[in-house]
Amino acid sequence: MSETARELDAADPLGPLRARFGLPEGLIYLDGNSLGALPVPVAGRLADVVGRQWGQHLVRAWNDDRWWTAPERTGDRIGALIGAAPGQTVAGDSTSVQLFNLLTAATRMRDGAIVTDAGQFPTDGYLADSVGRLLGREVIRTTDPYRALRSGDVAVLAWSTVDFRTGELWDMAGLTTAAHEAGALVVWDLSHAAGALPLHVDADGVDLAVGCTYKYLSGGPGAPAFGYVAQRHQAGLDQPLTGWQGHARPFGMEPGYRAADGITRARIGTPPMLSLLALDAALDVFDDVDLAAVRAKSTRMGEFFIAGADTLLAGLGFEVITPREPGRRGSHVTLRHPHALPVMAALIEAGVLGDVRPPDLLRFGFNALYNSFGDLARALEVLREVTASGRFQHRRFQGRPTVT
User: Fold this and answer.
1) What global pTM score does this model have?
2) Is 391 a catalytic residue?
3) Residue 215 bears catalytic tag
């Protein structure tokens, strides 16, 4: 397996891009689906933002350094990565805030229930329930969105492009079309897809979408999320959180709210500028990157890892639960094991960093910009060793850390 990995890495056109990230020496990092590695441009840009822009320009930086327009400017850069024309994407608030605002706005545009994924990331479900209570709408949790759309009056389908546990990739174009045929709008969560594979929100007819930027976009811990609103919906966007930065004249200090034109109305409050400008710097690594090539490599990495798990981990209690068909898989592979938490703890101690999701899932994320096939081969070898030797059973691996 190691020899095959060397051959694949030697032929990898994306291999040189690894130098654009500050990866610790000797660590195999397979948790970019949770927090992306540090892009090299970020540290220098932040030093300038703190020392010169904030330190010297002070409040003038909102004009002189274009802080005020950063949400739209950064949003358009993200928009280019998700298939959105300029003027439809904005960055600045957390994923939860973006999702609450756009899901509420979408639900206000239609009569009927909210349909959402029964197995999605918890926050998405919590917020769907909250919007349902706020607007007096039924919330239907299901694993079969097509059936739910056929079953009755649906206002909004709220769905994730990639399942955060299993890595299953949904057909955005097909499901969006099905929702529209049922008279519903769709709010997509792109958190596990943006930056990992080509997306086509405009071409697919997507209505609204949100996504975090600290996974495959490597924007940094807690980096601002983005919201996408198709141009055809912007004039009718009625959000529950109407902050001053989405006002038509934010410095007019008017007592009543008047929404700005275009995507600017999706802004809420003052964005976390240090994080937003760090995200903008992180996006530099994508300037000359072909996401089709990224997708091709990550798909091949998934095949390589699954094949290795089938052979190297046979008889050790592991089960691949990620879809094996390349077209149904995002950019992470999940293995089930009855002792997932201590196994991962032992793996991390040995220099291979992934993560765990309850009750028994080990996740391994592949970022094609900085992960190599050699990383995957070595990770599987270490995983086999810590499991076959029983080393994971040591008591130092039995505790549960706060973040898993």
Assistant:
1) 0.96
2) no
3) yes
